[in-house]
Write a structure and sequence with these properties.
By secondary structure, the protein is of the alpha+beta class. It has helices at about 30-35, 65-75, 125, 165-180, 205-215; strands at about 20, 35-45, 55-60, 85-90, 95-100, 115-120, 135-145, 150-160, 190-195, 195-200, 230, 250-254.
């Protein structure tokens, strides 16, 4: 809730209690601020490379994700083509937790000070995807912890692959997308991951039937029970990390 400093302090603080009163210096009138909503966005290119800094977008709080996506080309003019077909993702624990529908309300998002959202252009393969011959698949990076379970890191991403192709063919698609060097890519191993437990695949494994079979046997579509396609490799020395936000407050005692 936004309040003004001319409101009686007794409405904010009770006797003999301590509160932290958060404040913000506004660059717009208070009434306009109450009708606005700010979200933090970072743009990712086709090779899963993030923009150096996130941008904060301010829109009417009754708007939708479609309004957010419409504003992205002007927010990232050097990175985003005006005619790109965009999507907005919520990434949690280095996995894509949600791909937002364009009709979703802006007010359902976390405010800019609490969370950063990912914007990217859909690949050309996704524009006219035939579900009978191709499928979109989420790929994640992971290492194994002391118990052998998957420990996720880095930026997940989508690829489109033909149904029925072996892992050997899928690896070529991933290598081209991430632009991994010929020297480093042989160090990558690949797995199907369910309930954080990786099942390693060989080059002749047929990727999609294995993943589809595992996914259909699960009654839950939650993040932690869905089946993922994972790349097992060491963590790079530098990893993109989301901006950390700190609240500013003053303590009031009575």
């Amino acid at each position: 809730m936004i309040g003004s400093f001319d409101a009686p302090i007794s409405h904010t603080v009770s006797m003999h209690k301590e509160y932290i009163l958060h404040y913000e210096i506004l660059d717009i009138p208070l009434l306009q601020a109450e009708q606005s909503y700010e979200v933090s966005l970072r743009f990712y290119d086709s090779h899963v490379v993030p923009s150096p800094e996130p941008k904060v977008l301010r829109l009417n709080k009754e708007g939708t994700i479609a309004d957010v996506l419409k504003a992205v080309p002007s927010l990232f003019p050097d990175l985003c083509s005006p005619d790109a077909k965009l999507r907005m993702l919520d990434v949690y624990d280095s996995r894509i937790a949600r791909d937002y529908a364009s009709s979703a309300l802006i007010s359902s998002l976390q405010p800019a000070r609490l969370q950063e959202y990912r914007i990217e252009a859909k690949s050309l393969e996704e524009h006219d995807l035939n579900p009978k011959t191709h499928v979109r698949m989420q790929v994640v990076h992971f290492t194994k912890d002391a118990t052998g379970n998957a420990s996720f890191f880095g930026d997940p991403f989508y690829i489109v692959i033909p149904i029925g192709v072996p892992l050997e063919e899928v690896k070529k698609i991933i290598k081209a997308k991430l632009q991994v060097s010929d020297e480093d890519f042989p160090k990558y191993r690949f797995a199907r991951i369910a309930f954080t437990k990786p099942q390693m695949l060989s080059d002749d494994s047929i990727v999609i039937p294995r993943l589809t079979e595992a996914s259909s046997s699960s009654s839950s579509s939650s993040l932690h029970t869905s089946t993922l396609f994972g790349m097992l490799h060491s963590r790079p020395h530098s990893q993109h990390s989301k901006q950390q936000y700190r609240s500013t407050g003053i303590v009031i005692r009575r």
